[in-house]
Structure formats: C-alpha cells, structure tokens
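Q: What does the assembly look like in three dimensions?
Context provided by user:
Components: two
Sequences:
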Amino acid sequence: MQPVPPAQLLAALNWRYATKNFDAARRIPDDVWAALEETLVLTPSSFGLQPYRFLVVQDPAMRAKLLTHSWRQKQVVEASHYVVLAARTSMDEAAIDTFLQRTCEVRGVTRESLAGYRGMMTGMLLSAGFQPQVPHWAAHQAYIALGNLMTAAAMLGVDACPMEGLVPADYDKVLGLEGSGFGTVVACALGYRTASDKYATLPKVRFPAGELVKHI
Amino acid sequence: MQPVPPAQLLAALNWRYATKNFDAARRIPDDVWAALEETLVLTPSSFGLQPYRFLVVQDPAMRAKLLTHSWRQKQVVEASHYVVLAARTSMDEAAIDTFLQRTCEVRGVTRESLAGYRGMMTGMLLSAGFQPQVPHWAAHQAYIALGNLMTAAAMLGVDACPMEGLVPADYDKVLGLEGSGFGTVVACALGYRTASDKYATLPKVRFPAGELVKHI
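A: Here is the predicted structure of the complete assembly.
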C-alpha cells in the first residue's frame, strides 16, 4: 500500500467536476473499468451487509430508455459507462443469514461464532421501530458507494457525473427491479469529458472552509 | 493531475477497514489532516448546494461526552481526529440565495444570470411534495462526503472508521446543533490502527462481484 502525497489527492479532487459533456467516442479501458467495479464491491457498508446492487447499463437501447426518465440529461447515453445504484427496500432474516453464510465461507468461521453479531443486526434492523427506516439506511450505503466511486474515478483520471435527476420508479420498471427487493437510488455516468465542456474550467463554488468545517 | 495506477487504488481500498482500535498516541500530521478537510470541502453535492457542515471534534471533554451517545465505541475518544457530519434539516429560499451569492462571488457572474438555476432549485427543493424529503436529500449528500472522505483517507494511508452507531438527537444536544437548521447524520473517526487490532487482517467479506454488479 503506497500512499499518495496530499497534493496529488487534492489535484485529482480539484480536477473532477460534474461532467456535462462526455466524449461519446472514448471508452474507459477494460482494466480501469474493472478497478472501478472492484471499488464499488469494496465499498464499506453498515455491518458489512452491502444492501445494494450496482447495475452497469451498457446496452444502447436500455440507455435510450433510461434517458427519457432522466430529465433528458444526455450523459445517460453519451458516457462510456453508466451505473445505476440500487438499494434494498426492505430487510429480513434471510438477507442477514445470506450475509452470515458468506462470512463463514470467506473467513472460515462457524455460524455459531457469529450469533452475537447476528443478534446485533436483527435487533436493530428488524425491529418494528427501524423497519420504516430500512430504505433510508440502505440508500445511505449506496451513497457511500457513490462517494467512493467518484473519488476513485478522479484518482484514476476518469470523469464522472452523479445523476440524481432521475425518476426511480421509472428506472425500476425499465431495469426490471420491481419486486426484486431493490430499488433505484441514484446513478453515475463515467467516461471522459469533451474538450468543449465549458463546465470543466469554471471555478468550483464552495462555501469558505471556515463555514463548512467547524473545529470544536 | 497525475492519475494513480488502478493497482495502487485497489491496494489502498483493500488496506482500509473499519478500524476498531486506534493508536491514541498517534496524531494525523497537520498537512495530511488539512488535505482531508479540503477533501470534505470539495465533496460533490446536489446542485452544488453543500447542505452539510463538518464538525471536527478535538476537545477531549467533548469527545468523552459523545462517547456516551455512541454505544461506547471507543474510537470516539481514541482516534486522532473525529468528524461529525451534519446535514440540513430543512431548506428555504435564504439557503438557496446564500449559495447563489457565493456563486456570484466565486465565478464573477451576476445574480440575474443565475435566474434559471435558481428556478430549478426552488422548483424542486421548496415544492410541497419535496419538503418532507429534504432531510433525506441532505443526508444523502453528507453520505457522499463520508464516502469521499474514507476513500481519500485510504489513499493517504490514514485509517478510518465510519460511525453510524450513535444517537443523532443526543449528538445534536452535545454539539449545540439544536435549532441550527443542521442535524447529526453520521460520524467518522480517523487516525492510525494499533498493531494489535485483529480486524485489520481478517479477510474482507464481500458478496461475489457477479452478485453485486450486474451488466445490462
């Protein structure tokens, strides 16, 4: 593990912007894209439960359908890659047990050794009080993945645009998510900016650091 | 802007884990911490509105108070730095206009030139239908910041632990956020792992990539 110098990190974060015009002719190389998918997989999540799925939509016909449910933002069809982040709409014992089974496989431990962990998860997530919060809790984890993805993309020199301007229910229909236990939360277009995207060179608007960050 | 090789990114993301035991004697150097605060400031957000605040809690007495509202997770007091991410609990015209004023200052444009942008933001965020969603919308942006922060920390070789196990209302009281228009969403402890943290070397549990990522 080789840390990057702070200046290199900040240069990447200052370089990134919400890309409006993607070069539709330029594709993310396979090895770079594979790293971005692995980035999504490696996202930290609550209890490690990974209550999300990532749909990489590359079929042009499917992208054209999604465009009509995305306020006609053309990044949907012009970006090299388009990822829809979906999150669980509910949680049940089966979802928790599937995860615990995976934990046993990966770590070579017994189910019995995870009883305390299971109790903590079911106690919180399946409680009557928390059940209405589950979609929010799951969406939060998807947003961690989005933040992780955008920062990772910038580090790799890949442009990105977060896409909140979409109609989740319509996406769910187009993507066949209805009844799957997962629902569309947000999306992200990735690829490379065109030289003519005027947003690339606009100064970033941020509140002064002294307003955004308070020291206590 | 110097991209990192994909293997370097993945090494950092595999190196990171939700740190349980921080070395309480080891502090993040000032230049590295400054870069992480700048990372938070540079977080992408919906419309660029930055509907969050970041509270860096370094006062030991304040940390001790927060510990009692954090399921006694000792990262709260042992980590080098502790950031509470708060998000707007409501949105009004004043918040939008403050942001537009800042845009004028930073970009040297007139308020009139931003009329369309203003209409888009007020039309969505201040609509009766969306108002109950505002706290969720704002929390989502705070979670982007959290994802950004954790990935940036890993790139810099800084350990982190996302802290969802806290009582937001109690944090708000301790931090004086009540009535401020912002409420605690989540926190993040940052610093350096101890050599004895057994979680550091456990294999990461992730569902197979073929389950988490679907190609369409």
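Follow-up: Chain A has one domain: 6-91+126-212.
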